[in-house]
Amino acid sequence: MSSELRKLVEKRDLTSDEAFYIASSIMKGELPDALVAGILIALRMKGETPDEIASFVRSMRSFMIKAEGSPNSIDTAGTGGDGMNTVNVSTASAIAVSSVVPVFKHGNRAVSSSSGSADVLEAFGYDINVKPEEVSPLVRKTNFVFLFAQLYHPAMRNVAPIRKTLGVRTLFNVLGPFTNPASVKRQVIGVFSKDYMNVLIETAKILNYEKIILVHGEPGIDEVSVSGKTFVKILDHGKVLSEEFVPEDFGASIIDLNKLRTSSAEESAIRILRSSLGKDREVSSFIRANIAMDLLLIEKVKNLRDGYEMADSLLSELPSRAKQIISSHGNERKLQELLDKARG
Questions:
Q1: Residue 218 lies in a domain
Q2: What terms describe the molecular function in GO for this protein (predicted)?
Q3: Which residues are annotated as a binding site for anthranilate?
Q4: pLDDT under 70 in the chain at which residues?
Q5: In what order do the strands lie in the sheet containing 239-245?
Q6: Domain range enclosing 101
Q7: Annotated binding site for 5-phospho-alpha-D-ribose 1-diphosphate
Q8: CA atoms within a 13 Å half-sphere pointing along the CA-CB vector of 160
Q9: Domain check: are 46 and 116 in the same one?
Q10: Cα atoms in the Cβ-side hemisphere of radius 13 Å centred on 27
C-alpha cells in the first residue's frame, strides 16, 4: 500500500484496480488510520479523477446493505458540505415530488449544516431506521422511503473517525449520492463546489446512470438557487449538457440567502410546512425551484418555468403527503405538533 501512497504523493493517478483495492482495504478496516488519512489527503491534493471516484463508489456499493428498488425511482441526495445552513430543500422537494414518482431518499445526519435530511425527517416524526425488508412495502404504500446512510453503510464506521479527525473534505464527501442502497438510476445531485461538477458528471457517466442532473447554486450552495445563478450539468443516456439558470428563468424573484437560513432541524421543518401553507414566500420559492428541477429530471415538464408552476400545487399538498408518509413509519403526533406551530 505504501507504493500507492507514494504514487499519489508524486501526483500520479491510480488505476481503477488500485483505487478499488485501496477503497476495499479501507472499508474492511485493514489499514492503519494514519495511512488512510495520508491516502485521502494525497488524493485531494492531487485531485481525484472520475476513474478513482467511480472505483471508490463500486467498492462502497459492494459493502453496503442493499434495498429493493424500483426502475422508475429517483433520489435527491446532495454532496452536502456547503456550510450555508439553508432550509433542507432537497428533503422537502423529495416529499413533494413523491406524489408523482417513487422516491428512495438516501441521506444522513448533518455534518456541515444545521440539519441533514435524517434530522429534518425525524423532526417531522419519521422513523428514519427503515429496515431493508420494510423498503418495498413502504414505497408501494406511500411512494417514499428514507434510506439512512448509517444503517445501510456499516463499513463506513471504519472511516468516520478518520474523517472527523481530518476535518477537511475528502473523497468520501462525494460518494454518498452515488451509493444509494436501492441503486436508483435517475438523480438530482447538489454539488458543494462548481469546480467539482465536471469530474462528478464524468464519474456518473462511468457508473452508467440513466439520467443525472448536477446543480450548484450561487452564492455557493448544493441546491438550485433563488439567490443567484444555478450551474447545471445534465447526463442523459451518455450525453452531457451544460446549462446556467437565473431565478427569472423559473418565474421567481431573487431572494437574499439569509432569508433561507435556519438554525435547527425543527426550524427547517416548520419553515417547510409554513411555505406549504402560503406563510413563507421565500422558502416556498426556494423549494419550488428545486421541485422544478426534479420534475425536469423525470420529464414531467419540458422546462423549469413549467416545473416551477406545477411545483406550486405539489408544495401545497406537502402536509397531506407528509402525513401519509409519517403515519406509515413514524409518529404522526409530532407532525401535527409542527403543523400547529406552522399555522400559529
A1: yes
A2: anthranilate phosphoribosyltransferase activity; magnesium ion binding
A3: 78, 108, 163
A4: 81-82, 110-114
A5: 186-190, 211-217, 230-236, 239-245
A6: 89-336
A7: 78, 81-82, 86, 88-91, 105-113, 117
A8: 11
A9: no
A10: 21
Which parts of 176-300 fold into alpha helices (H)? 197-206, 247-250, 265-276, 281-297
How do residues 21-51 score in pLDDT, each as one tens digit? 999 999 999 999 999 999 999 999 999 999 9
In a domain, 72, yes or no: no
In the chain, % helix, strand, coil (3-state, to 5) comes to 55, 10, 35
Domain end point (choices 45, 63, 81)? 63
The total number of structural domains in the chain stands at 2
Phi first, then psi: what are they for 219, rounded to 5°? -95, 30
Binding positions for Mg(2+): 90, 222-223
Q: Which residues are annotated as a binding site?
A: 78, 81-82, 86, 88-91, 105-113, 117, 163, 222-223
pTM of the model: 0.95
Give the whole-number percent of the chain exceeding pLDDT 90: 88
| CA dist., res. 79 & res. 222, Å (int) | 7
Give CA–CA dist 307/293, Å, rounded: 7
- Provide the 10 A C-beta neighbour count for residue 256: 10
- Give the C-alpha separation, 78 to 214, whole Å: 9
